[in-house]
Design goal:
Elements (H helix, E strand, L loop, with lengths): L4 H28 L1 H10 L4 H15 L2 H13 L5 H14 L1 H11 L8 H11 L5 H26 L8 H7 L6 H18 L2 H13 L5 H22 L5 H23 L1 H22 L7 H21 L3 H11 L23 H31 L3 H33 L5 H36 L6 H26 L7 H28 L4 H28 L4
Length: about 575
């Protein structure tokens, strides 16, 4: 049988079938257990050992180390994980991804699981129409699982038969007699395959299939597996190119961890292969007691053992160097520092494909930062009100104008990000949260607009040489102090879980601001009647304390939106 264009397309199609099944299954598990995964990540990463275990557990559950890595980066961005904790979880994810190889070795080649695929789809398909989101997600898991093994079955059929294509092994054999250079060559092949198909699990499935059909030897397959370990990190680093500093650091840490592991393994490769073959004898005896006939897939199981032992030993060797890795990647990707005068989103990384839960967490952190920036902008206005130095006055005016532009752009960027998140499937809770967030960023942007309008009023006052009485200045300063308390409490509500919002204090502060506005308005009308200050001064004064009260309205709107009152 000639292996031409049609056969190549069949092979690529089978590989795509497998990847699609893996994607559907992984996404279904993440949807069904999104909140649980978040709780596990946030509560089980207090030290490096727990972090490694957490990474292993989550990758075991969702069957995708790439998905785990993206989740880790997302939670690091959202402030739930430190860089050191993130590295520990990524190490665990490397061990967790080896489970996929065991599943394929046991079930993909030994049991005709594809025979059960259509009945599994028959069970899962009606569940797709269930009203409960959990049932629909579980249906995706079942259908994805079935498609995954149908894809693997197609992959086995698409790989050329060695008996009819002996030139395939002959071609590869010419590169196997160069010692460490041969190992490096096939490591590069494994890396390239993983980069091309964008999935280490699919690359592993292809390697196992080639080994099963005797297209490659065990040593070549082992070298390719090492390359796949590097390939999966390069994918993450490419995705992090347009992401934020936290994403870049986590991706670099993953790359350093895997590359260092592959380097020491390359230097000890022949000895390690002998170690695996030595370990296989007692391991096989133990497996035989559970699965009596495993002779048909011994080399595939040995490759799975190689993959697992390598990742466990690499993790044990490297876990003590996590702080050092963190320091290295921090130097590799330095922070630009506190650049308040420049617009930049710190937590939302547009280059990473995130789960809905992770995306919402990133948006929450960005919105909290937006709230702090708004508080700083509000603080400029009372300073402008009392500034007498013309140069400093103009500088403050320019700064408020700059911040107003920044608030407009942040609202636009975050709303666009949330719109993209909304394009995916959302449960009721996620949909309500996104609606609340859109309301919050709108109110924060309006606060920026009000501050800018107030700065223009103060500028007109200065240009026309209009003076405020000490009483007017004192009243405005009192209102600004009260608004500062309200906006500080608003930020506390933004930082906390949205389920734990203190509306009592927020409402009290809002009522106090309203009372001050009403009191100053009455006093203002009396002062105008008695001629205590000019009509021009009165108009600007009235505009200012009314504007401060409007800021208070937007502040309480934010807390209400956080509380779900929209």
């Amino acid at each position: 049988m000639e292996f031409g264009l049609l056969e190549s397309l069949n092979l690529l199609g089978a590989l795509g079938f497998f990847i699609f099944g893996m994607k559907i299954m992984s996404e279904g598990i993440q949807k069904a257990a999104g909140n649980k995964l978040r709780q596990i990540l946030s509560s089980m990463t207090r030290n490096r050992v727990l972090g490694v275990f957490t990474g292993f557990l989550i990758t075991l559950l969702i069957q995708s180390s790439s998905a785990t890595t993206v989740m880790v980066v997302s939670f690091a961005n959202a402030g739930l994980l430190s860089l050191v904790e993130s590295i520990g979880v990524i190490m665990g994810a490397n061990i967790g991804t080896t489970v996929t190889a065991w599943l394929i070795s046991f079930f993909g080649f030994k049991i005709k699981i594809s025979s059960f695929a259509l009945p599994i789809i028959a069970v899962g398909f009606p569940m797709m129409f269930a009203k409960r989101g959990t049932l629909k997600s579980f249906a995706e898991v079942l259908i994805g699982f079935a498609l995954l093994f149908l894809g693997l079955d197609a992959l086995k059929s698409a790989v050329p038969d060695l008996n009819q294509n002996p030139e395939a092994l002959t071609f590869l054999a010419t590169f196997t007699d160069y010692g460490i250079l041969s190992t490096i060559l096939f490591i590069l092949v494994g890396t390239l395959i993983t980069i091309i198909i964008q999935s280490s699990s699919a690359a592993m499935a292809l390697t196992l299939t080639l080994l099963y059909t005797d297209v490659i030897t065990f040593e070549i397959a082992a070298a390719m597996v090492l390359g796949e370990n590097i390939g999966t990190t390069i994918t993450a680093n490419l995705a992090a190119i347009v992401a934020n500093v936290h994403a870049k650091r986590a991706a670099r840490a993953h790359l350093i961890f895997n590359v260092v592991g592959v380097i020491w393994m390359t230097l000890t490769f022949p000895f390690f292969i002998n170690l695996i073959k030595w370990l296989w004898i007692p391991f096989q005896e133990g497996l035989t007691s559970i699965v009596p006939d495993i002779s048909g897939s011994q080399e595939e199981l040995q490759l799975s053992l190689f993959h697992t032992v390598f990742n466990i030993i690499n993790t044990l060797l490297m876990v003590g160097f996590v702080p050092m890795i963190a320091r290295i990647v921090t130097k590799m990707v330095p922070s630009k520092g506190d650049m308040d005068e420049e617009f930049h989103l710190e937590y939302i990384g547009t280059g990473m494909m995130l789960t809905t839960e992770a995306a919402i967490l990133e948006a929450k952190k960005e919105i909290t930062k937006f709230g702090r920036l708004t508080k700083k902008m509000v603080g400029f206005v009372p300073k402008l009100l009392v500034e007498t130095d013309p140069k400093l006055f103009k500088k403050l005016l320019a700064r408020i104008r700059k911040y107003e532009e920044i608030t407009d752009r942040i609202e636009s960027e975050v709303s666009n990000y949330l719109a993209k998140v909304s394009e995916g499937e959302l449960n009721t809770s996620a949909s309500e949260r996104i609606r609340s967030m859109l309301s919050i960023i709108n109110d924060l942007e309006r606060i920026g607009d009000v501050c800018y309008q107030m700065s223009k009023a103060i500028e007109r006052k200065s240009d026309k040489k209009i003076w405020f009485t000490p009483e007017q200045r004192k009243n405005l300063q009192e209102m600004f102090l009260k608004v500062d308390s309200a906006i500080s409490h608003m930020i506390v509500n933004l930082e906390n879980d949205y389920e734990n919002v203190d509306m009592t204090k927020a409402n009290e502060l809002e009522k106090e601001i309203n009372k001050m506005r009403n009191k100053f308005r009455k006093e203002h009308l009396v002062s105008i009647e008695q001629g205590e200050y000019t009509f021009s001064s009165g108009i600007i004064y009235n505009d200012l304390f009314s504007s401060v009260e409007r800021i208070g309205d937007h502040i309480i709107n934010v807390s209400e939106a956080v509380n779900g009152e929209i």
